[in-house]
């Protein structure tokens, strides 16, 4: 039987969090397109025989990699049923729902990628150790993870705007599973080393992400803790708070476009030969 781990995250990504991301899939893929491009370029660096995308969501990244590589088998795994349900398979892309921390993988991949899908494990050493079992000897890990909140001010603008308006918003635990849990490079090196990856390398990535201005209200009401809180409110209260939050995003809006800088790590590692 699969051990019961990551139960809080499983509840979130199979509940409101996962449904929000599933419904917002086209928007997410537009906003995070620069990171898709980065991982597609990584996949094309050398010949591949099998690629795994961890925390693949609705699968945009692994479908793009599959399209770029031709007939290489590509697989996406995610703990979120609502997202896997709408992840469209292609001739060489398949998806399945599982907790990547404990799923019994076969060692069939020479590349494991992730776009912001590996920061939610309750035991990162166990999880990255388990991912290593999915890699062929010498297989590569290429994952992007967010750097700190301070380096990604766009991501916390909504939370800052509602501090007094929604005082019971869940508090952020910097050491617990969450978007910024792998922001500390020393921690990442330690986690990857302890889980048996070699040739560990962290590269700073700074990319501008964009979305049309008229999509911003949808973005804010569908994603993240503020989005989830807004969804539970009566319409009038939601509209009032949303107006306040939107004003805080003015610095990012220009000529009908929302543009914001992002800071992340590209984590690289190799499975031992
Ligand atoms: C921020 S979303 C990124 C989704 C997708 N990679 C993308 O870029 O659109 C994080 C994803 O990680 C998934 N996830 C969280 N914990 C997981 C776990 N233990 N095993 C597999 N997937 C997990 C979530 O369900 C979610 O789809």
Largest pleated sheet: 8 strands, mixed
Helix content: 25-40%
Name the CATH homologous superfamily of the domain at 7-148 and 176-210 and 263-270: Vaccinia Virus protein VP39
* Rg, nearest Å: 18 Å
The parts where pLDDT drops under 50 for at least 5 residues are none
Helix-strand pattern = HHHHEHEHEEHEHHEHHHEE
What is the residue-averaged pLDDT?
94
Instruction: Look up the CATH topology of the domain at 7-148 and 176-210 and 263-270.
Output: Rossmann fold
Class computed from helices, strands and strand pairing: alpha/beta
Q: Give every kind of bound small molecule, once each.
A: S-adenosylmethionine
Spatial separation of the terminal alpha carbons = 30 Å
Strand content: 15-25%
Q: Helical element count?
A: 12
Look at the structure and give the CATH class of the domain at 7-148 and 176-210 and 263-270. Alpha Beta
Q: What CATH architecture label of the domain at 7-148 and 176-210 and 263-270 applies?
A: 3-Layer(aba) Sandwich
- The coarse overall form would be globular
